[in-house]
Amino acid sequence: DGGITQSPKYLFRKEGQNVTLSCEQNLNHDAMYWYRQDPGQGLRLIYYSQIVNDFQKGDIAEGYSVSREKKESFPLTVTSAQKNPTAFYLCASSMAPNRANTEAFFGQGTRLTVV
Amino acid sequence: AQSVAQPEDQVNVAEGNPLTVKCTYSVSGNPYLFWYVQYPNRGLQFLLKYITGDNLVKGSYGFEAEFNKSQTSFHLKKPSALVSDSALYFCAVRDMDTGRRALTFGSGTRLQVQP
Lengths: 115, 115
Prior knowledge:
The complex is a heterodimer of chains A (115) and B (115). Chain A has 115 residues and is mainly beta.
């Protein structure tokens, strides 16, 4: 069954801790994305990767880091430098970058809460 | 820079009545436009997209959208609303003429269909 899997579904972080959100896809997509969703603000782009071993900052990259060592995986680390990390995080993927007319497919999201 | 505006935070409609959710966009080049739907605590589901050609695009669950280049709009429509259509709807754009391949999303419109 093809799709995007995000884990965990819920995550609690203490102040000053780094946490890593997992995103795995078996759609054979080249491009992967991380978005943050806050109430009333829609989705904002954190990082994206068009190909393995390459990634670019999005609009709100400060306090986050990513890696893309495998085509299937694009983990997001929320570092202690991110001052307001409580949000709903969505991972997405799409076909090759030069096929920009294709839609992105989304995972079910991870809700991160700072306690 | 590309951007999307969804001017209504919420749209209320009675079941059986037609619905419209508004979206306007701004890109420097030619747009690819998308509509997604989100149910509570879930990821986004793709509804439909405009790439080129016919200005009226048909999508999933009876939804359609009308592309209007002169008004830079891409409004989502459905002839007869269902209570189950109640959800959060996002419009998104990808500018073909820039290097940025990630989708840019609007702030979302909550659709409430009353029985």
